[in-house]
Amino acid sequence: MTTEAGPRKGGRYLTSIALDSNPTLFFIDLHNRYWGTVNTSPLRCEEFLGLEHQGTDTLVTHYVFESSLDRVHMEQRILPADTLIKKQVIDSIQRFFDGASLFFLARSMLHSNTLLVAPTMIDMELLSTDIHFTDSVASVSIGALDDEIETKEIRGQAHFGGKTFGGFSGEFRGWFSNDPASVPIRAEMTITLGTVVIELEEWNRP
After folding, report:
1. I want to staple 199 with a disulfide (CB 3.0 to 4.6 A). Which of 24, 59, 142, 152 is the partner?
2. Do 84 and 77 touch, CB atoms closer than 8 A?
């Protein structure tokens, strides 16, 4: 899994996530792509596009947040036939998060020592993710760094399962650098492929 983020106008960031199965596991063939636009003020997801391959077909899921009306426009299509599966509008929503924007939320609240319930849009349903921002501090080693790095830990529970965003579900843990930047260092979570460990490989930091 890789994540890239770049600045856009008005404090917005574009995120990109690639989720691919190990080519040596011939019985699993997973190649999904997810893109999102995250607004940092206020912090929320403003657009999401997911492409999930299902044999010869691709499930396309698209959300667009209309902030002036507190409204989310959503649809799902199957390619290459371009068949509309579902189309829906949800009103009275002030903000929601997708998988990638949850990382931005975690970074912004890392030092809050609180429990947060984040509204999370999964498979065109507004569900929830619990995130416990702990005061636990630990030194963590990863392959990208020669030295251990001091981190703060978060723990959480995704109240959904077996749906979009790679099947992300259940309990998860994350470790972020214990400094104002709150860089994501390591995470443990459950997806369609099973329990995975994600580590920071590289980053650009001024």
Report:
1. 142
2. yes
How many angstroms separate the CA atoms of 130 and 159, rounded? Answer: 8
- Residues 171, 155 contacting (CB under 8 angstroms): yes
DSSP state for residue 113 in the 8-state scheme:
-
Q: By the 8 A CB rule, do 174 and 109 touch?
A: no
Per-residue tokens: 71: 């409204």
Q: Which two tokens stand for residue 97?
A: 């998060």
In terms of pTM, does the model score above 0.85?
no
| Distance separating alpha carbons of residues 73 and 92, to the nearest angstrom | 12
What's the CA gap between 95 and 120, in Å, rounded? 9
CB distance 140 to 149 below 8 Å: yes
Question: What is the distance between the alpha carbons of residues 71 and 69, in angstroms, rounded to a whole number?
Answer: 5
- Cα 187 to Cα 176: distance, rounded to the nearest angstrom: 9
Q: What is the pLDDT of residue 170?
A: 85
Six-digit token string for 106? 């975690």
Cβ neighbours for 82, distance < 8 A, ≥ 6 positions apart = none
Q: Give residue-wise pLDDT tens across range 71-112.
A: 999 999 999 999 999 999 999 999 999 878 888 899 999 999
Residue the block writes with tokens 């930047």: 181
Consecutive H or E run containing 174: strand 169-177
Dist. CA 4–CA 44, nearest whole Å: 17
Map tokens 């890239």 to a residue.
4
